[in-house]
Amino acid sequence: MTTPQRVDADLGWALGRVTRAHLHTAQEVVSGLPGGPRGYQVLAAANDGEVSTQLAIARMLGVDRTVMTYLLDELEGAGLVERRPDPADRRARRIVLTAAGRERLCELDRRLREAEERLLAPLEPAERDTLRELLRRLATGTGHDGASACRVAEEISAADGC
Question: Where is the HTH marR-type domain (predicted)?
């Protein structure tokens, strides 16, 4: 007979607790940005350059195309991104950061990194880097689409009221 596991040794409990803390902190940091954390992810994806079309960014982030349109409308209205025709496919739109968008992204990156460092303070610096790398590998190698990850994050956020 196996001994029941302690709650604080459960992976789901630990991931949920860290996720809720991170979501709360990230919400505070990006509260003035159109779209909040999703808006930040769009800025980061557009800055990265690997995925640059509206549809590609929506797919990568697991955001519905119609929701992405409204989100981009807000970001464009705030002067943070521009939609430009894709030279390879005139029907597609490339999402390009404006100078203000790059500046805002740099500020948010700095503030999010500071918040993450506070969250990860119980770990040694090398452990923080290892954790980030392991989580990145898990997140990109799970075989789950981005929409599922978004749904999970929303469910966790909604359950946070308990």
Answer: 8-140
17-73 per-position pLDDT tens digit: 999 999 999 999 999 999 999 999 999 999 987 768 888 899 988 999 999 999 999
The 3-state secondary structure of 52-93 reads: CEHHHHHHHHCCCHHHHHHHHHHHHHCCCEEEEEECCEEEEE
Collapsing DSSP to helix, strand or coil, 42 comes out as helix
Compute the C-alpha angle 81/67/40, nearest 5°. 45
- Would you give the distance in Å from CA 153 to the centre of its chain? 10
Give the residue with greater pLDDT, 137 vs 143. 137
Any idea which residue has 């800025």 for tokens?
A: 43
d(CA 60, CA 71): 15
Q: In whole angstroms, what is the distance from residue 112 CA to residue 4 CA?
A: 37
* pLDDT score, position 9: 77
Residue 13 is encoded by which pair of tokens?
Answer: 């409990």
Q: Is residue 1 part of a domain?
A: no
Enclosing domain of residue 104: 7-159
